[in-house]
Amino acid sequence: MWDFARSMLMLKTAPVCYPQIKGVNSMSRYESASHVFCCCQYHLVWTAKYRYKTLKGNPGKELYRSIYIYCHMKKCTVAELNVQIAHVHLVVRSPLSVSVSELMGFVKGRTAIRVFAKFPYLRKQKQWDNPFWQRITL
Questions:
Q1: What whole-number distance in Å separates Cα of residue 77 and Cα of residue 69?
Q2: pLDDT tens digits along 4-40
Q3: Could you say which residues of the chain have pLDDT below 50?
Q4: Looking at residue 70, which CATH number applies to its domain?
Q5: Domain range for 109
Q6: Which of 23, 24, 68, 83 is the most buried (most CB within 10 A)?
């Protein structure tokens, strides 16, 4: 009896992938190249150097705008973006021609340059020896 109730609970909470909408193909979430269909969607998380709480207020708003701009330059689509006080969550869909490390290097490098240029007081603080973001390994 307990297994039956548990299985019914699992059936009720099972996720529904994509509902069929009239006029929308279920393959529309995939991108196509010459011989492939793919969906390259990545959830990327990175932090400020030493996890300092520097992304609040205007630097965070500028970072939010610049991530959208730089992802668009690489022909990527931002699905979700959340800029916290000490870290950033980015869910992005990218074409096959753009690798994850290339995208991360481009976005992190350009946003650091832009934030330091717009807010020079961040560079003058003692804790910064030059990099804005923490190093990551992929």
A1: 10
A2: 444 443 433 333 344 444 444 555 677 777 777 788 8
A3: 1-24
A4: 3.30.70.1290
A5: 33-124
A6: 83
